[in-house]
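Hi U.,

Before I forget, here's the chain from the pilot set. I'm dumping it here mostly so it's searchable later in email.
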Amino acid sequence: MGNGSENAPVATTITSETTGLFENDFVSILEATDFNSNLDWLFERMPDDSLADLTNFYGVKDTHVASSAQSPREGHKPDGQPSRDPAIPELPIPHAENSVSPDDPWPMEWHAEHPQRSLELPALGGTDDEATQSLSRFFSAWNLGQSTVEALAHFIKLPAQRSPWQSVNLTHFPTKEKLEYCIDRYFAHFHLVCPIIHQATFDPSDDLTVTLAIASIGACYTHYNNAKAFSSTLSELNRRLLLFLAEYDRRYVRTESYLAAQLLQGLHGYCSGNKRLFELSESSRSNLVHHAKCMGLFRHRPDSNPGSLPATAVEERWRDWIHQERLLRLGWAVYEYDASVAYLHNNRPFLTIGDIHMDLPCLSQYWQAESAHSWHAMLLSAGYPSRIRLRPLIRSFYDKSQNALERLVEERHRYILVLTQVRMIWTLKEITGSPICDLFVNGPENCTADLLDATDRFARSPHTLSSSLTTTELASAIHTLQIIHVAHLYGANGLMNWLYPLLREGNEATTAFTQMSHWAAAKPEMVRNTAFHCARILSLARTYPSNCPDEPFLIFHAGTVLFYLARWLPRNTGAGSSENLVVRLDHIGAEDDTESANLRSWLRDGQAQVISLHGIPSLCSNQGRRQVLDETADLLKRRRVWGIANSFVKVVLNLRDTSKPVPDQDFIF
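Structure:
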């Protein structure tokens, strides 16, 4: 006891010194870090971005009184008293999906095992002081002070002593009826975008993190006040819960519920308009892909078809099939989520086409069956619904196989194939941006043209689609059609690489503008073609709105690209057959009408007196370029569900107000 009392003041002094050292160094790190450099061009600065709030978030400037008033971690044991860490009864026991066995030596993947949460740092070497003092060093320009050693020890104990999160106020947690309404809105509006939940058997009490993710998305589609703020806050709280579960039991990251919840969180974060959630969606994407790989979701799984067991109950067979199909759809949803960043953000996806070996999802009619008997009644045989392999199917569009398109009766399959081709086009764009690409005789441009031609084969007339599809089917078909048009933006050499530097007006803007000018002068036909596809995206968004989470991104990119291209669209100013020709660049109608014929003629030879769009009588003028941005902002303002649209509106209107007029002669080649 005497020794303990004598050492107590020393321990207190060391703790105070090391805590102060941590506070000073950490605050200096925060002050020297530009937290907004990656997204400041898109998101406005939020009140919670201040340094004071960041330090409060990490608890750096908490007073000792506040620290003693509330325990950041219940059940935390003082140093030297190991905790038995009893299991929390409310938490689910994870049933992990593993792609490898426990004794598999493959080092790239590992079998998820029960965690050992208590951690003890093993001794490094022996305890012989003489041996320690005799250690020689290569360099002697620095030394560790005792206070630094103590600070290091204190630093690594902080996660176990302090929580980065303050207490949560759930006074306004919604009622049962409001939560049910949010979940209902999810299935009514968002389920079509990401059909990974089996609606007929969905039970909100099964996977609570999934239910929270669903509710946060569904809230965006409600008419409630503060719906967006509620949605973002609920998503952040669910993120903390998922992070806690992943740390509490590492097997949890290999579960279907974890992946589904993280996927929905990521989709919501990209479109919510919340800067923090956007950052987290991008930074967590690699983890999501990695865990899906470790679960074997991208591997081919032969059906455990019970067709030879007629005695098997229909209900049991249905449940077994649902489990298989859920995992398959989850794998595809992760792939779609990862691949979509190529055309939504011009970012590199983590998954390659070579990683994907799964069959395509089943027809939606089977997935939407309300009961085992309705599902069984649609089957043509005693087995499970037949599946289509991706690789042979996508190859058939390039080896001139007959009736390749006729085999596609499911819109989801069309979307996956189009997305895969856009993914390949993005890869070729990346190669084109290499400084040595032009040194190769057979560069990637010819391959890009072939991919664009194959992608165009999936295009269908919106006029025909609207007369033959239901409202739900039409929304999916129009979205696929918009992605086809987006493919041409990324197939236009380095166009999309130049767009962001121009919008951000940084040091690279001048170089980007020069490169775009040279490209436009060298390839006027590609400029016309790209402008046409931009106009089509805007026209489809105006005529067939769907509140798809991708829509704000597509509208923003199409509108801003068209704004820049307008100055390089050639006009015919002389007399001739095209003197009075007016081209409606965004015309959607029958293929054989006059407007469509004029448009095809202009795309071919560039001869037109006036180029116009909805709300833009003459595109090739300073006023026309400003009107493009006004129309783009108007379309974005109509997308009230997703907060990202508001961020895009600010960028578009700022571009309109700050862009310099173009001399009239620059509109004519």
